[in-house]
Design goal:
- By secondary structure, this protein is mostly helical.
- It has one domain: Nucleotidyltransferases  domain 2 (Four Helix Bundle (Hemerythrin (Met), subunit A), Up-down Bundle), CATH 1.20.120.330.
- The chain contains five helices and two strands; from the N terminus they run αββαααα.
- Strands 1-2 form a two-stranded antiparallel ribbon.
- β1 and β2 form a beta hairpin.
- α2 runs antiparallel to α4.
- The longest helix is centred in the N-terminal third of the chain and has 23 residues.
- The chain is elongated and about 45 Å long.
């Protein structure tokens, strides 16, 4: 479960960038640069966990968000929804746009942690395909 530990490390790094560098004031982060770094780090953590679940860690081809959604949709609708939110918040809003809302960042990080926890649970069950 080394990849799960690595995924959690990415989430911890994202939280660190936000708390130590983004300078939160009145519910907003002041430095979009660190919001972007945190968003990318957290989203990467989600992908690391999912790649471990789907056995994609050794392949060089980059998967699309639609590929992940399709794979998840057959397994768990709630996780599919959480992934869609994590993508929208962590990758797009934070990672590209530098959205400064601390509340939005908290929601994205929470969804990322839920996905990683779900993957960890799935990997602990040896009888299931995923």
């Amino acid at each position: 479960m080394e990849e799960i530990s690595e995924a959690r490390r990415h989430i911890d790094n994202a939280k660190g960038f936000l708390s130590n560098n983004a300078k939160k004031q009145d519910g907003l982060y002041r430095d979009a640069k660190y919001v972007k770094i945190a968003g990318h780090a957290a989203y990467t953590g989600v992908l690391l966990a999912l790649n471990e679940l789907f056995g994609e860690k050794k392949k060089r081809t980059r998967k699309s968000v639609e590929w992940y959604q399709k794979e998840l949709s057959g397994l768990d609708k709630k996780v599919t929804s959480n992934f869609a939110l994590a993508y929208e918040i962590l990758h797009l809003a934070m990672g590209y746009d530098g959205a400064k809302s601390a509340e939005l960042a908290d929601l994205g990080l929470d969804k990322a942690e839920q996905i990683i926890g779900w993957v960890e649970m799935k990997l602990e069950k040896p009888s299931s395909k995923y």
